[in-house]
Give the backbone structure.
Amino acid sequence: MREVLEIERRVLGPEHPETLRSLANLAATLRQTGRYAESEKLGRETLEILKRVLGAEHPQTLTSIHNRASTLQAEGRYPEAGKLCGEVLEVRRRVLGPNHPDTAASIYCLARNAALEGENDVAIHLLQEAVGHGLPQEAAHGMGSDVGFRGLQKDARFEGLVSEIRQHNAGPVDTK
């Protein structure tokens, strides 16, 4: 992946949208493989370029900030992560509206952060809000196994929410 990125930088330029997409993808891959420091550094660099080239409120910039918050959560840097989640949510609510899936994903990010900080009541409230405002199905479906919600696994409210999502995703049952 790094080789492709270097070729894109050389051929397309360091600020080309495809180069920026590859930078973001590499940062995500590093995060997913537990290389948080590298991911955070690359994510920060990518974010600076995205803000300058696309603007602070561009969807790709906001996704990059959201991903950086996930990296900070993985590193246990919850106050920083929560701040970023909140910033993205504020912009997405204003620009996309409250019922957009990306807005709901930002609420989910805040809920995850609250759960990681042991603020279970806040986390449950935010999860209910995220689900009610169009949380993407892949995020909603994975909620029950998300390690960020480990502290909520025995909470009846959380279990009820996960059950509700599973029933909703199952759709109507054909009885013919």
Summary: The chain has nine helices and no strands. The mean pLDDT is 89. The two ends are 50 Å apart (CA to CA). Residues 1-75 form a domain with the Serine Threonine Protein Phosphatase 5, Tetratricopeptide repeat fold (CATH 1.25.40).
